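stage 2 :: seqdesign
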């Protein structure tokens, strides 16, 4: 496929990070198997047909393919909130909060840290993710974390130091 500039809504760096996440095996391409490996936890009921659609009918995708796809498939709906859509992926039961067990599942499935997070590690993640300190990881907390990762600021009351034992927040949450 021809090289195309990144879309205005996603920088080339964002697309490269997305590709690196989807390239679960680090082979420089995304196959149906690696796509399922990364998205299966977020979308457990996704069909093979839907995965094929995401693959654009190709057997594998390169960074160049993903860049072209993103450049030609912008969402034009002004009501679309990509952060809210991402939160919905994690909040599969539409409860408005991410519970401790769900966070453990997310970190384990994306191989972020050890496969068996200790309670102390999970507590540190929760403390870091609970931006407003109310004891829950809500959409507002999630949005503040995402915006702080993008350098767009965050919610009022945002913490300025990491929780003990948590050097950085999750790149996908």
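stage 2 :: out
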């Amino acid at each position: 496929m021809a090289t195309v500039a990144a879309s205005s809504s996603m920088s080339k760096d964002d697309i490269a990070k997305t590709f690196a996440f989807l390239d679960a095996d680090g082979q420089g391409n995304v196959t149906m198997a690696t796509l399922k490996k990364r998205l299966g936890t977020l979308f457990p009921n996704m069909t093979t047909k839907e995965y094929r659609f995401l693959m654009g009918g190709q057997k594998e995708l390169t960074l160049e393919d993903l860049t072209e796809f993103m450049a030609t498939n912008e969402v034009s709906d002004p009501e679309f909130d990509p952060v809210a859509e991402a939160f919905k992926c994690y909040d599969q039961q539409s409860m408005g909060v991410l519970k401790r067990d769900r966070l453990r599942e997310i970190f384990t499935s994306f191989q972020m840290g050890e496969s068996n997070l200790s309670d102390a590690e999970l507590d540190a993640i929760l403390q870091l993710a609970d931006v407003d300190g109310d004891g829950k990881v809500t959409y507002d907390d999630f949005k503040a974390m995402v915006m702080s990762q993008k350098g767009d600021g965050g919610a009022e009351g945002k913490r300025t130091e990491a929780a003990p034992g948590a050097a950085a927040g999750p790149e996908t949450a």
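stage 3 :: structure notes
- Strands lie at 30-31, 60-61, 97-98, 137-138.
- The mean pLDDT is 74.
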